[in-house]
Amino acid sequence: MISARGLSKTYRTKGDDTLALDEVTIDVDSGQFYVLLGPSGSGKTTMLRCLAGLETPDRGTILVDGWTVMSSDDHTFVPAERRPIGMVFQSYALWPTMDVTKNVSLPLRHGARGVPKDQVADRVKGVLDLLHLSPMARRPVQALSGGQQQRVALARALALEPAVLLMDEPLSNLDVQLRAELRIEIKSLTRRLGITAVYVTHDQADAMVMADVACVMNAGRVLQQGTPSDLYREPADLFVAGFLGELNRIDGKVRSCDDRSCEVETPLGTFTARRDPGVDPQAAVVLGIRLEAVRWSDAPGPNRFEATVLERMFMGGDIVYRMVAGDHSLRVRRTSAGDDIPATDSPVFVEFPHESLTAFPST
Ligand code: ADP
Question: Is the CB of 13 under 6 A from ligand 1?
Answer without folding.
Answer: yes
